[in-house]
Every structure is written in structure tokens, then in C-alpha cells.
């Protein structure tokens, strides 16, 4: 027994902390507040058998206290306060029992107790113990806390506070323990029970003490962690128990038991007693009843662990609470604790807590906003952000509620889900409808939907329901490309989960206002940074990567577009062709937001056809506006906008003309709903819209007709007088302005039995309906009888009233301040109508005429001025007479008027032969044929203001402002006058001005546009072809024109303005003549040459034109060319003019006897040419000298080199005849000696070249032998492998194609010699199909199918190389006898149509990094979440292997075929394994994609369908690295390069050898002929 007495140990709930803040003021049970560190006591609360409570304080001086001593102290204290009838047997064998039923009979060990902590002991005197104890619990709060009570507290809020306590309790259980919260609600009692650790005596007292939260110290532990932050440290204010229970009912009983406790502690709270009766004593303490009992059987079964807490609230203050709604609401508040996907490592849904309400498991009940929203969302990826907030103390301004402490950091997770359009309906609308059915009182619609919901520590904050976060809202974006975003952003729901770093309001329904973390979260994504103002640093992370605001905006847009493209289901079920209506009227009534809708007359819905004109019945409750009765209507139109539709129908009580109207106005369709009603398409889906037959429809019409009013009638003046009212409406249909007097208008509604054809003379009540209709009056005004310009001047509505015992009178008193009635002439329409009735409108027309009293004269139309052009009849000028109300008065006769012109600064002559007339409508006097003449308009330039004065019988009537403008261009003056001096072919005219005048010598008006036509000139810029006149009347053409005609030709400049008369000015370019100034012999020896021929260009005076000078800087190209049909001088050889002279150093003459004619001409201007003739004779015969040359004779080609021996003109027949001494043997021998020396020199050079050619040929053979070592491997890259087509196979296929340019190119390259290939055709690379290979047949076929005809495109290096394939005539037409077309003709083929040529040096290369294999390093495509699409194999441009023969084919900039040719063909085309993989990755595809199973996307929305088996594909060859190592490939490429250099050098040496051999033979033949004709004689 003694051992049991020593087990007095305080117990508490496992999650409760005992280390309360040491410096925090805590209420003493005796009412005295003490600070920690003051006097120390052991505190014992003794429960006496008579139901009273005594609090004992024992100083900590001793370790034990005897039971007898303690009982005596208790007795003394009890006798001071007790007044109960039942007494305690103090003489009995007393003992004390603790909370765990430990019995203490001898002593208590005090050292086992905590200082200043209260422990419960029950005094046992042998009698039956009490069950209820007075003043057992001290609930005295801190007085400061009474100022912090929540301002708004609702039933749900209070209930949630109590459930929070239970949630915190069960969360502390082990995973093996039962976690249950059960709520039972009835009209008599609310019960909340949990299977948490339970509460001991101290804990249960804190539960009932306001402000005594047990969880404040745990807030720091709930900051951070893993979302959704399920750490229910909700307690911050200490209101959860006391305030919540008192709010819910009149009195509360709390029962709790711990696992190790034997008894159930009871705390009783009574609201009235605590508020009014139990505040007693000078210390002002709050005490209440308590008790102890044993657990019941049901409680033991409910909690297998032996601990629980139960809160029972009696006489609850409920007002017909919807239990179904309450279950859904609680499910929303605690949804992550009920079911959660984040706690399981496998992603499996777990149930952390078992929640029950009235026996129903909340996880199993349908409904709730979160569950409904999740079901309505798409299955696509969510947009998830992790946001960390950290307080920057340098800038922070922290505001927090009393009793709370702000932390330095906070965390939030944002999870955005997409709610797409499904089954022609917005998912958000479906969610809202479902919530309203569950009892939610949301007033939101699709446009006002709250897109953000917030939780703190997994608990919903109901009032933290925001419309948007800044980064989510695209509604105000102005970009065109953001229209999809504006629509898609409306379909996003964002769930925000926060940790304990965010502070809530005391009621825990919202975040604390003005808190820096709250402000930072609400402004997340704002373009204006709030970090400086709020003092909070924000770090946004997505998929492990930090984002700035621009990146956040970009990734959110990408996600929105992906969700829209993948999950929004567009609907167009119309059968007929729709009418597109832009900006329809009645958008609100039509429930549409789009600017474009489709209007159908028939559509199909769920295999049923609905057509315009069908009679339908809309059942009661089908949709909004149809709650009370079934509605009969006629289906008129079906309207469909982007994703959902509406049907417009005309109800049975609306006339056909009041139904909706679809009409074309100025070619644009317009739709007006009028009185028809719009019903959503989903009414048809719900089955609450049915078609009715004719009999039912006709019966309904009869019933309706008998109840509806028939017509509206206006009481006349006599009937109004009977009522004592003066009628405003005149009895006549036409009146003059202001003839009607002010008054009232009275209307009545006639029943169907009333016959309007026989109006009664007196009022009769039986023909006036007394029902309480609302009548509207609309007064419109139109200046004409037609209503096109009709405008509303008054609108009003009145209810029926009574006068003189007549009921159902609708009295209107229209007052129109802005438009007084009957003042303006025109038609007034009075339209009377009844709202929501089929009663026909009553329309009264009153025609108001202008008064006959003329008040003023004025222009018929208000314009600032009239424009009059001198010499031209003016446009008609209309003037009118007006009365005092500005009404136009009709002209009955033509008045005699006179006109004068007032312009002080310019004399003007007025032609008085004008013709006034009256307009057709007789409202205007029209003045026509008025002509003004003046030559002084420059004096009033550029304003041209004047006044036209109108007189009637010398009476000044009106001043009309006019502008007198110059006439069209009639002549001009060219400046400078000696413009011919600038007319030099090819030169720009630097100085040229045109001064323009009209017929009266006035300068033309400024900004007059003049169109020019040129002959012999050209514009430096095409935009100069039209010019505007400047402020002075000039057009400056200096520096804009270039002379294009030649010398002696005519040039002209013509222009016109506004399509009027064309004016032409002509000039002549001064003539020039080409002459030869040097002496020209009449004859010359064959094979010789003419030297130092000088040509000059002279002007018309015969003088040399020293300005005739070749100068590129001045744009002058003056060169001379020589042409002859006997010899090819080469048109590319040009001789330059210097100061009018050109010297030709040598002209070769033919080697045959006869007449030699050649033409010397200017290279640009053919008119400058000169034809020269010369007689060619053979030299005298001589015998050859005994000179021997051992020369190899080879096949020679024509050489362009000329013979260059000394003074050949000296040895002409003329000179030898005139000077016989010169024809002696000595001079001939000297000439022959020179020839002999040259022959010897050429012979030596030929020998040297032959040695060099021999050496190069040996080197070439050595390289070729080395290359043969690679031959077998290279052949494997060219020939077929395992039946797959190799390069040779593809070459044969290409060559076999008839009339194909690619085949002709391949054949030509194959046939031409190596010399030509290295020379003329070196830059023709080949065709696309033979420049690359693929490792597999599938890739080859797919790439060929993707490229199509581009596989046969010819590839060359430069754009200029196209001339090798095609040439054109001077007229621009194709030359069929040149280049590739000539080869086709020789082979009997033809080239029809066009073919593609790709020039790699003109292709913009892809400038990205490359790997060691030369492949382009593109980044892999990624989804918005950063993942790479499944099945992505690579980029097509990298899966092509460059042909081994073209590895070194480069552009001048060093780019190879991959980054030029193949990037031009494929771009960033991607390759996937399957079509499904490619379709899933469509949002990542830029330029196109290919799948190995045959799918082809071409980018920008294009898809290739069908199947094709192309015969021209890329050769299939294994990868080079499979056959050759990297070193082998490098060696092969070096050998190929060395062979190319050697071959080029060999070609060059052979050409030089052939040229020298040709020269040797010509010199040798000349030597032999000359010797035989001269020396031998």
C-alpha cells in the first residue's frame, strides 16, 4: 500500500507542453497572479465527499506530508468556505485517492510533484463520493483576452473550433491507434467525441479557460515540412473550447479520460451562470462545476486505446440546420485529413483521420466543394508552385493580432487545376449547380467565380476565398494572342496550402489582415514588386527550379494553352449552315460572353433533331426563371458560342413580331432577342424540354387568350376632360411647332371583348382592365417621317391609378428637358406597351411642322467652310431659313438674291451667272455654277480665306466662310534654265526644280500630289515617282533622277495631278562621236598585231570631250570593247577612257590573207562605235634556218595567248615597198633571231613542265593506292547491304528517271572529264538524295516521304553557279539551247516545269554548338513541368549521316552540309517512336515531327495523311564509326583532301603545258614561213 502511495505522478495529454512561457503571466487558482520565479508552492485540489472543492498550497520546504496533517489543513480551509448541509466525517479513517486510483493513507511524497502545478486528490471518509463538485474548475481568464474575442462567429465556425481540438488530439495518436472524430447533431444535443490521448485534470481545466491554449508553443514546429502541411497546431488564441461551446448552446459538459487514468473527468459550463451568477468575490474569479465518473461501456468500445474526450452541448442554438450541407461543409474544411494523396510514398490515397457525422463517414458521402471540383477537373497535369516567404526585417512592417507572434518565414503550395468545358457546358457551372443543390449559399456565377481557396495546416479558411492571384488573371490583357488565355484562365481553380507561418484571424476563417505574408501571397505575380514595400522576400519554385515573375507568367501561359488544347471540348452540333453574328445584342439575356456567336435554325442533340418553329413545353424547374409553372413556347433559333449554347424561344404570351429577330443590316447579320427568352442547351439534356402536339398547343392558346389584355387605347381630349385632365396629345395628326400646350396623357387597357371599331362616347369601367400591369411610354423623335434617324427623347413607366371612381388609368406626365416636345419639326411617336404581356403596342404619331416665322438664315448643313477653285464652278451651296426652334422653313417661292466676295488682300472677280434653285424637299436654297477668277491667290497663301456674302434686296442675310483655292497645274518653269548641261548619260541630275502654276498664274496649292512619268530618266528610288508641292509652289527633283538614254537621244519628263491634263517637257542630250586619232595602216602581215591605237570621243564642235572619263565614284563607266566576226577578242576585255581618250596597246590580226574588219564600240552606249577595215597579206617566203627543237606534239586546244614579238607593224607590205633598204636580209635575219630566241625559251619551259607533271602523276598514283586500303569499307557505304538500297542503287534509280533534271545532272557529272569537273562544274555538288545516308530503311523512307520532291533538288555552292544549269535570253525567256537544256536535247529528253536548286553558301547556317561527331546540340523538347516527352528519339537533322565523299564540303564561312543544307530541309523536326508519342508531345513540336510507324506532322497545324512508298530515298549505310575508327576517318579525309589538291595542281600544270606547246607550234610555223619566203630568196 505504501508503494502505491508514492505513485502520485502528474499526467497530461502527450501533445501538451508543460513548459509554458516562464515570463508569461498566468492566473493563480486563488485569484492571485504570480510571476515565475516568485514563491514556490505545491498545489493540491482536494475534492471533498460533500461535493465541494478546496485548493491547498504547500510550501516546498519538506519532501513528505502526512495524510493526517493534510486532512487537518483541508478541514480548516473547508470550514471557512463550506455552507453545505452534508458534512464530512473528519473522524473517520481518512485517505486520499489520486487520478489513477492510487490510495494514500500515510503520507504523500511531494518531491514527485511539479512546482506550481495543480494536482487532484479525492478525500475519502468512507461515505459514497459525490459525482459533481462545486467550483472544481477555475476558468478565470486574463482580462486582456476579453478584448480579443472573435468579431464574427457562426455555427459552423464554432463547431469547427471544437473539432479542431479533437483533431489536434487524435493526430497525436500512434499510427496503430484508432483515430476517430465522431460528431452527432440533433435538436436536443451536439456531441463531439474523439479517440485522442484524453485530458487529465489540469488539461481539462485549460480546455475550459479562455485564452489558455495548449498549442502555442508548437507553432514553430508546424512551419515548413512537406505540403499539405498536416500539422494541426491550430491553437493560438485559446477560444476553441470555452467560446465555441458557449456560442453553440446554453450549457456544455466535457468528459475526458487518459489511457492511464481510471476515471473520467467532467467539466460543466453554463453560459448564464458564468456570465451573470458566478463572478463573485473581490478577486473576480470564474469557477464552475466538475466531477469524476467511471467510463461507460459505449465509451470503452469506441476507444480501444482507453482514452477519449467527449464534448456535449445541450439546448443547441440551431435554426433548421441542413445536415446534408453541414456534412459537406465539414468535409471541405478538413478534406486533407479525411483523404490525402500526399502522405503515401506510392501516391495512394490515404485516410489519416476517420470523420463521422451522425454516423456517416465523411470520406464516403458524395458532395462537398473540394470533391466536386476534383471530379470536374481534367486529368491533365496540375500547375504546382512551392513558395517560400521570408521576412526582411530591414523593410518589414509587421502587424499581428494580440496573443499571436509573427514568424520570420512561411511556406505555401499553390495547386492549380483546370476545369474544362465538357458536354457543351462549363465545368465551373456544373460545380456551382451541384454546390447549390447541396445547400451552399454561393451567389457566384461563371464570371464571378472565386478561383482561389486557402488552407492553413490542412484546415480550410472559408473566408479566404479570393477571386484571383495576379499571375492567374489574364482578363485585362490587351494582346490579340491572349484571347485564348482570357477564356482559359476563367477555368482554373487554385488551392493554396500554407503552414503555420501564416497567422489566421481569431475565428480561423481567414488569414490575418495586414500581415506581410498575407499581403505577399495575395499579390503573388504582380508586375509591381511588393518585396520592398511589404518587407517579404518571395522565392517561387516549380519542379525544383526558381522562377522570376516573367518565367512564372510564361510557364503559366504554356500550361493554360496545353490544358485548353487537350481538354476543352468544343461543340458545334448545328445541322444547317450557321449565320455568324458579331457583337450580338442582349449578351446578358443570352448568357453569352463571346463577341461572335453562331445562329442555327436546326441542330441535333442526343440523336434528336430540334428545328426552328417547333412548339415546345419547358417543364417547371428546368432552369432559372422557370420555377413556378410549365411554359409553352416556340423554338426560334439556336445560338452557339465557343463552348456552349443557348436556344431562344418565344413564349406563348408573346406575339410573333416581338420574338427575336435575325436580320442583315448593311450586309452584317444582327440578332435581337427582343421579348423572347433564352434557355440553356442543357435544359434539353435534362429532358425538361419536350415537343407538344397541335391540340395541346391550341388549348393552351385559348386559355391564354382569355386572360390577356387585348389593346391599349389613348383617351381623347373629351374623355380626359371628363376626368378633369387636360390632354397633351393633339387630336389632329399634324400641328405647327409649339402649338400644343403642356398636359397629361391617359391610357387604358382594353379587354379582348372590347371592339375598337365603335369607341364609346363616355368612359365605361367594364372596358378598362384593372389588373396591376406596368405600362411603359417611349417617345421617339425623327426629323423625317421614316424612322431611320429615330431617337428616344422620353421613357417612363407608370402603374395604374384611379380618378373619379375610374380604375386602371395610366397617367403619364412626360417632361423632356433636353428635347421639349413639339418644338422640333419632325415626327413624334408615342409608343405605349405593357411589360411581359402579349397586348399589342399602341403607337400614336404626331407630325410637327416648322413655324412660318423666319428667325434666321444659315447654311443648311453646318460646315467650317466651302472650298472654291478658281475658274471652276463651285460645288452647290445650300442655305435655309430657320424658325426660333432651328427648324428649317420651306421655300414657297424662289427669292431674288445677290452675292459678293469679301477678300481684302486679293482681288477677285465673281461670275454672276450663277443659278439659284430650290431643293427637291423645298427646305434649302441651292446656289450653283458660281465661278471665281483671281491671279492674286499668292497674297492669301496658304490659308486662302475669303467670305461669300448673301443679300436679299440689299439686305445682308448671311456670311459664308469660303476658301478660294488655286486651280490645277497648267504650266511650269524649269530651274535652272540650262538643264541640258546636266543631261549626261549615267549621271544623276543634282539640280532640278519645277515651279508650278495654274491657268491664272497662281502657284499650285501646297501638298498637291503630282504623278511623274519618265522617258530617258530613272528614279533612284521608286518611292520618288510621286511628289507633293512644297509651301512655295515648287517640286525639287534634285538628286532624284539619273539619265539613262544615250548620247544624241531625246529625254522627256511628263506629269499630271489628280488625273488631269498631262504636261510634257522634252530635252536632247548632246551628241558625241567616236574617232581614231592614231595612224591606221591599210594592210598588215597575217599573224601580226596592231599596236597603240588611240581613240577619242569628240563633241558636236569636234573637240575632245575631256569630261568623258571612266569614274566609278561618279557613276560613269566609259570603256571600249573590240568585236569582230573573224577573231574572238573577248567581250570581257575592256579599255578605259581617260579624259576623252582610250589607247588600245595591241590588236591581233588573223593569220590568214584577206580583208579584216573589226568594230570598236563603247561598252554601254552602242551609238559610239567605229568600224575599221584592214587588208591582211602573207609575208615573203624564206627557207628555215637550221634550228632543231625536240618537242613532243600533243593534242592541242586553242590558246588565248597572243604572239608578242618586237614591232610587227614594222614588217608590213607597205613599209617594205616604200623602204627597200628595210627588206634586206639583215633585217629579216634579225627578226628571225628574235623568233628563234623565243622558241628556245618556250622549249625549255615545256621541258620543265613535263618533269613536274611526271612528279605529280606519281604522287597521284601513290595517294590512290593508299585510298584503296579504305576501298572495301567505303564500298560498303555505297553498295546494298542485306538487300537494303545503297548509294549505287540510288544513283541508278535517279539516272533512270526520264526528263528529270537531277538525272541529267548526275549523267553530266559522270560523263565529263576530271579536268572539267575540277574547273567549270566544280561547284555543282550533287542532288539531295545522294548527299546523306541513314542507318535504317525506315528512317530513309520516312525522311524521303517528309521531303518529297526536295529529294531530287540540285545542290550547288553559289547562286551564281545557276548559270551552269540554265541561262536566259535578253527578253528574259529561257534559252533551251544552253546548259542543262542543251544536254537534255542531245539525249532526246526535255525538262518540263520547274525544279529546285539549293545554294549552300546562300543558306543561313544554324549557328549552334556541335558535338565531336558534328551533330547540332539542340536541347531536348520539354513539357511545362520540365519532363522530356516519351518516345523522343532525336532531331532528324542529326539522324542523317553526311555522305563520306562530302564530309569536307564546306561553305566559304566553314559551315558543312548538316548546318546548312539539311538544317534548311529539316529544321528542328523531331523523331518519335510512335504516333501516340508524337501526338502526346504536340505542344513541344516546333517545325514538325516524324514517328517510326509512319506519322508525319509538318508544323503550323499541317498533317500528312495516307501512305507513300518513295523510290528515291537516302542510301542505307551503317554508321561510319561502326566500320572506321576516328583515326581512320581522319586519315581517309586527309588523303581525299591531298588527292584533291594534287589533282588540281596537275590540271593546272597540264593546261600550262598545252598552252606553251600551242605557242611553240605557232612560233615555229611562223619562223618556217618567214624564212622560206624571205631568206631563201
From TrEMBL:
Residues 1232-1266 form a coiled coil. Keywords: Coiled coil. Residues 13-27 have a biased composition (Basic and acidic residues). The keyword Acyltransferase does not apply. The keyword Coiled coil applies. Residues 1-36 are annotated as: Disordered. It comes from the Eukaryota. Signal peptide: none annotated. SUPFAM superfamilies: ATPase domain of HSP90 chaperone/DNA topoisomerase II/histidine kinase. PANTHER family: EN/SPM-LIKE TRANSPOSON-RELATED, EN_SPM-LIKE TRANSPOSON-RELATED. This is Uncharacterized protein.
Amino acid at each position: 500500500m505504501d508503494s502505491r502511495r508514492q505513485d502520485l505522478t502528474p499526467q497530461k495529454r502527450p501533445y501538451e507542453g508543460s513548459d509554458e512561457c516562464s515570463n508569461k503571466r498566468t492566473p493563480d487558482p486563488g485569484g492571485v497572479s504570480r510571476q515565475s520565479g516568485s514563491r514556490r508552492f505545491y498545489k493540491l485540489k482536494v475534492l471533498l465527499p460533500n461535493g465541494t472543492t478546496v485548493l491547498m498550497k504547500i510550501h516546498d520546504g519538506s519532501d513528505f506530508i502526512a495524510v493526517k496533517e493534510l486532512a487537518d489543513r483541508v478541514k480548516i480551509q473547508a470550514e471557512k468556505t463550506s455552507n453545505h448541509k452534508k458534512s464530512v466525517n473528519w473522524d473517520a479513517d481518512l485517505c486520499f485517492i489520486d487520478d489513477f486510483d492510487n490510495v494514500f493513507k500515510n503520507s504523500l511524497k511531494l518531491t514527485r510533484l511539479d512546482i506550481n502545478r495543480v494536482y487532484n486528490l479525492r478525500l475519502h471518509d468512507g461515505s459514497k463520493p459525490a459525482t459533481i463538485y462545486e467550483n472544481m474548475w477555475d476558468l478565470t481568464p486574463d482580462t486582456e483576452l476579453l478584448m480579443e474575442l472573435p468579431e464574427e462567429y457562426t455555427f459552423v465556425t464554432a463547431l469547427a473550433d471544437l473539432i479542431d481540438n479533437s483533431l489536434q488530439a487524435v493526430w497525436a495518436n500512434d499510427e496503430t491507434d484508432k483515430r476517430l472524430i465522431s460528431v452527432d447533431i440533433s435538436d436536443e444535443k451536439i456531441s463531439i467525441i474523439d479517440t485522442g490521448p484524453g485530458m487529465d485534470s489540469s488539461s481539462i481545466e485549460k480546455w475550459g479557460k479562455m485564452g489558455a491554449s495548449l498549442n502555442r508553443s508548437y507553432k514553430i514546429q508546424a512551419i515548413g515540412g512537406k505540403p499539405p502541411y498536416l500539422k494541426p497546431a491550430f491553437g493560438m488564441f485559446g477560444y476553441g473550447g470555452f467560446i465555441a461551446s458557449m456560442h453553440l448552446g446554453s450549457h456544455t459538459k466535457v468528459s475526458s479520460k487518459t489511457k492511464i487514468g481510471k476515471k473520467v473527468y467532467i467539466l460543466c459550463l453554463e453560459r448564464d451562470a458564468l456570465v451573470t451568477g458566478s463572478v463573485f468575490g473581490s478577486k473576480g474569479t470564474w469557477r464552475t462545476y466538475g466531477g469524476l465518473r467511471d467510463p461507460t461501456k459505449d465509451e470503452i468500445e469506441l476507444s480501444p486505446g482507453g482514452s477519449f474526450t467527449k464534448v456535449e452541448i445541450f439546448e443547441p442554438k440551431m435554426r433548421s440546420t441542413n445536415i446534408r450541407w453541414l456534412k459537406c461543409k465539414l468535409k471541405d474544411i478538413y478534406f486533407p485529413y479525411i483523404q490525402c494523396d500526399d502522405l503515401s510514398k506510392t501516391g495512394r490515397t490515404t485516410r489519416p483521420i476517420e470523420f463521422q457525422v451522425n454516423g456517416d463517414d465523411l470520406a464516403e458521402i458524395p458532395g462537398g466543394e473540394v470533391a466536386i471540383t476534383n471530379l470536374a477537373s481534367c486529368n491533365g497535369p496540375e500547375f504546382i508552385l512551392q513558395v517560400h516567404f521570408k521576412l526582411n526585417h530591414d523593410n518589414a512592417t509587421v502587424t499581428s493580432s494580440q496573443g499571436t507572434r509573427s514568424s520570420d518565414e512561411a511556406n505555401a503550395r499553390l495547386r492549380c487545376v483546370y476545369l474544362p468545358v465538357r458536354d457543351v457546358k462549363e465545368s465551373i457551372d456544373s460545380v456551382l449547380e451541384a454546390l447549390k443543390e447541396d445547400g451552399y449559399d454561393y451567389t457566384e456565377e461563371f464570371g464571378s467565380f472565386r478561383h482561389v481557396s486557402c488552407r492553413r495546416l490542412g484546415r480550410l479558411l472559408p473566408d479566404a476565398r479570393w477571386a484571383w492571384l495576379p499571375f492567374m488573371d489574364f482578363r485585362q490583357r490587351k494582346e490579340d494572342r491572349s484571347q485564348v488565355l482570357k477564356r482559359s484562365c476563367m477555368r482554373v481553380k487554385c488551392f493554396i496550402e500554407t503552414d503555420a507561418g501564416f497567422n489566421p484571424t481569431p475565428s480561423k476563417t481567414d488569414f490575418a489582415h495586414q500581415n506581410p505574408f498575407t499581403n505577399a501571397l495575395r499579390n503573388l505575380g504582380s508586375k509591381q514588386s511588393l518585396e520592398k514595400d511589404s518587407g517579404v522576400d518571395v522565392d517561387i519554385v516549380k519542379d525544383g527550379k526558381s522562377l522570376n515573375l516573367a518565367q512564372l507568367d510564361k510557364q503559366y501561359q504554356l500550361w493554360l494553352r496545353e490544358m485548353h488544347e487537350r481538354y476543352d471540348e468544343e461543340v458545334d452540333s448545328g445541322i444547317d449552315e450557321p449565320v455568324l453574328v458579331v457583337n450580338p445584342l442582349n449578351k446578358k439575356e443570352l448568357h453569352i460572353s463571346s463577341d461572335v456567336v453562331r445562329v442555327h435554325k436546326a441542330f441535333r442533340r442526343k440523336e434528336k433533331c430540334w428545328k426552328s418553329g417547333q412548339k415546345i413545353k419547358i417543364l417547371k424547374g428546368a432552369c432559372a426563371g422557370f420555377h413556378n409553372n410549365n411554359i409553352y413556347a416556340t423554338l426560334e433559333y439556336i445560338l452557339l458560342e465557343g463552348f456552349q449554347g443557348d436556344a431562344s424561344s418565344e413564349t406563348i404570351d408573346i406575339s410573333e413580331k416581338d420574338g427575336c429577330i435575325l436580320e442583315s443590316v448593311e450586309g452584317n447579320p444582327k440578332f435581337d432577342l427582343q421579348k423572347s427568352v433564352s434557355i440553356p442547351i442543357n435544359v434539353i439534356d435534362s429532358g425538361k424540354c419536350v415537343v407538344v402536339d397541335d391540340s395541346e398547343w391550341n388549348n393552351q392558346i385559348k386559355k391564354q387568350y382569355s386572360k390577356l389584355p387585348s389593346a391599349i387605347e389613348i383617351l381623347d381630349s373629351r374623355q380626359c376632360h371628363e376626368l378633369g385632365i387636360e390632354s397633351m396629345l393633339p387630336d389632329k395628326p399634324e400641328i405647327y411647332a409649339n402649338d400644343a400646350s403642356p398636359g397629361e396623357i391617359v391610357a387604358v387597357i382594353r379587354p379582348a371583348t372590347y371592339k375598337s371599331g365603335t369607341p364609346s362616347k363616355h368612359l365605361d369601367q367594364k372596358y378598362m382592365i384593372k389588373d396591376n400591369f406596368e405600362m411603359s411610354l417611349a417617345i421617339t423623335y425623327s426629323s423625317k417621317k421614316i424612322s431611320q434617324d429615330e431617337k428616344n427623347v422620353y421613357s417612363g413607366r407608370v402603374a395604374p391609378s384611379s380618378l373619379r371612381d375610374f380604375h386602371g388609368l395610366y397617367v403619364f406626365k412626360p417632361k423632356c428637358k433636353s428635347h421639349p416636345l413639339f418644338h422640333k419639326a419632325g415626327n413624334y411617336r408615342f409608343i405605349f406597351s405593357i411589360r411581359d404581356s402579349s397586348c399589342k403596342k399602341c403607337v400614336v404619331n404626331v407630325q410637327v411642322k416648322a413655324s412660318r416665322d423666319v428667325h434666321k438664315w444659315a447654311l443648311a448643313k453646318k460646315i467650317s467652310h466651302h472650298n472654291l477653285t478658281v475658274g471652276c464652278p463651285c460645288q452647290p451651296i445650300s442655305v435655309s431659313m430657320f424658325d426660333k426652334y432651328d427648324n428649317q422653313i420651306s421655300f414657297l417661292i424662289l427669292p431674288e438674291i445677290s452675292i459678293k466676295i469679301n477678300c481684302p488682300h486679293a482681288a477677285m472677280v465673281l461670275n454672276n451667272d450663277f443659278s439659284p434653285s430650290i431643293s427637291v424637299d423645298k427646305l434649302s436654297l441651292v446656289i450653283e455654277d458660281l465661278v471665281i477668277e483671281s491671279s492674286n491667290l499668292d497674297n492669301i497663301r496658304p490659308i486662302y480665306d475669303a467670305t461669300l456674302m448673301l443679300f436679299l434686296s440689299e439686305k445682308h442675310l448671311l456670311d459664308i466662310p469660303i476658301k478660294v483655292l488655286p486651280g490645277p497645274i497648267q504650266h511650269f518653269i524649269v530651274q535652272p534654265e540650262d538643264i541640258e548641261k546636266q543631261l549626261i548619260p549615267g549621271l544623276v541630275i543634282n539640280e532640278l526644280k519645277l515651279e508650278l502654276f495654274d491657268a491664272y498664274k497662281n502657284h499650285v496649292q501646297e501638298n498637291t500630289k503630282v504623278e511623274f512619268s519618265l522617258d530617258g530618266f530613272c528614279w533612284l528610288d521608286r518611292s520618288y515617282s510621286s511628289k507633293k508641292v512644297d509651301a512655295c509652289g515648287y517640286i525639287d527633283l534634285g538628286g532624284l533622277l539619273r539619265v539613262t538614254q544615250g548620247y544624241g537621244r531625246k529625254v522627256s519628263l511628263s506629269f499630271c495631278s489628280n488625273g488631269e491634263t498631262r504636261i510634257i517637257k522634252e530635252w536632247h542630250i548632246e551628241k558625241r562621236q567616236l574617232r581614231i586619232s592614231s595612224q591606221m595602216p591599210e594592210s598588215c602581215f597575217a599573224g601580226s598585231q596592231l599596236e597603240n591605237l588611240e581613240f577619242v570621243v569628240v563633241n558636236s564642235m569636234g573637240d575632245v570631250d575631256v569630261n568623258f572619263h571612266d569614274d566609278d565614284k561618279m557613276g560613269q563607266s566609259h570603256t571600249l570593247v573590240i568585236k569582230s566576226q573573224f577573231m574572238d577578242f573577248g567581250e570581257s576585255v575592256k579599255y578605259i577612257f581617260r579624259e576623252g581618250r582610250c589607247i588600245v596597246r595591241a590588236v591581233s590580226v588573223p593569220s590568214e590573207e584577206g580583208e579584216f574588219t573589226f568594230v570598236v564600240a563603247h561598252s554601254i552606249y552602242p551609238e559610239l562605235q567605229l568600224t575599221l577595215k584592214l587588208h591582211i597579206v602573207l609575208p615573203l617566203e624564206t627557207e628555215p634556218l637550221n634550228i632543231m627543237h625536240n618537242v613532243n606534239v600533243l593534242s592541242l586546244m586553242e590558246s588565248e595567248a597572243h604572239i608578242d614579238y618586237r614591232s610587227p607593224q614594222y614588217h608590213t607590205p607597205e613599209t617594205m615597198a616604200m623602204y627597200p633598204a628595210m627588206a634586206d636580209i639583215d633585217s629579216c635575219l634579225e627578226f628571225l633571231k628574235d623568233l628563234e630566241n623565243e622558241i628556245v625559251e618556250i622549249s625549255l619551259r615545256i621541258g620543265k613542265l613535263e618533269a613536274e607533271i611526271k612528279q605529280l602523276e606519281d604522287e597521284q598514283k601513290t595517294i590512290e593506292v593508299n585510298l584503296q586500303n579504305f576501298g572495301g569499307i567505303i564500298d560498303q557505304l555505297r553498295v546494298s547491304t542485306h538487300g537494303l538500297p545503297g548509294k549505287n542503287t540510288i544513283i541508278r534509280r535517279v539516272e533512270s528517271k526520264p526528263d528529270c533534271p537531277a538525272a541529267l545532272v548526275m549523267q553530266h557529272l559522270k560523263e565529263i572529264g576530271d579536268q572539267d569537273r575540277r574547273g567549270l562544274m566544280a561547284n555543282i555538288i550533287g542532288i539531295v538524295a545522294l548527299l546523306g545516308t541513314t542507318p535504317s530503311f525506315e528512317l530513309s523512307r520516312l525522311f524521303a516521304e517528309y521531303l518529297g520532291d526536295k529529294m531530287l533538288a540540285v545542290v550547288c555552292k553559289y547562286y551564281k553557279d545557276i548559270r551552269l544549269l540554265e541561262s536566259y535570253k535578253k527578253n528574259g525567256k529561257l534559252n533551251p539551247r544552253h546548259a542543262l537544256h542543251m544536254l537534255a536535247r542531245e539525249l532526246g529528253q526535255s525538262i518540263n516545269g520547274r525544279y529546285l536548286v539549293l545554294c549552300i553558301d546562300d543558306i543561313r547556317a544554324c549557328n549552334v554548338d556541335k558535338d565531336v561527331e558534328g551533330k547540332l546540340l539542340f536541347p531536348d523538347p520539354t513539357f511545362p513541368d520540365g519532363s522530356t516527352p516519351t518516345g523522343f528519339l532525336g532531331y532528324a537533322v542529326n539522324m542523317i549521316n553526311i555522305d563520306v565523299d562530302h564530309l569536307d564540303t564546306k561553305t566559304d564561312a566553314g559551315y558543312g552540309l548538316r548546318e546548312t543544307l539539311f538544317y534548311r530541309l529539316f529544321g528542328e523536326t523531331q523523331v518519335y517512336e510512335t504516333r501516340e508519342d508524337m501526338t502526346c508531345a504536340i505542344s513541344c513540336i516546333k517545325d514538325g515531327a516524324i514517328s517510326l510507324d509512319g506519322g508525319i506532322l509538318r508544323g503550323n497545324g499541317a498533317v500528312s495523311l495516307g501512305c507513300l512508298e518513295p523510290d528515291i530515298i537516302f542510301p542505307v549505310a551503317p554508321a561510319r564509326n561502326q566500320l572506321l575508327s576516328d583515326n581512320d576517318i581522319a586519315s581517309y579525309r586527309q588523303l581525299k583532301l591531298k588527292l584533291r589538291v594534287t589533282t588540281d595542281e596537275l590540271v593546272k600544270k597540264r593546261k600550262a603545258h598545252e598552252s606553251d606547246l600551242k605557242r611553240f607550234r605557232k612560233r615555229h610555223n611562223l619562223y618556217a614561213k618567214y624564212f622560206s619566203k624571205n631568206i631563201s630568196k
